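@channel sequence for tomorrow's demo:
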Amino acid sequence: MKPFLILQLRPETEAGRAEPLTRGLPETFPAFVGHKEAVEALPPGCAHLLASDTCPFQMIRHGANVYATQFHPEADSAGFELRIRIYRDRGYFPPEAADDLIALCRARKVDIPETILARFVARHASP
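structure tokens (generated this afternoon):
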């Protein structure tokens, strides 16, 4: 998996298309990612919800309300720009690529992951 990119995510399974947090989303949508690590096999009892070409398990669910995401549903372009600046010299990407990565973040509209996060809060937050 390549770190610090904007990937196109997609519902990968019927569970992903039926999941209340992802139901009705576009066929593909951009999301911020920034990890070197990734799930390599779906753990037992988990539903596979979202995928990307470079990381097949972008979002999974265990049971009714335990979720894990590889992408960052909380990230916006300003937050990711800060993240790139912080990690510039930490080995996640060549330091000279930082300005290009920041430009990429600024150039793309990435808002569907925020919808997923808002749906999670609406569904699972205590009153």
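heads up for whoever presents: Residues 88 and 98 are 6 Å apart (CA to CA).
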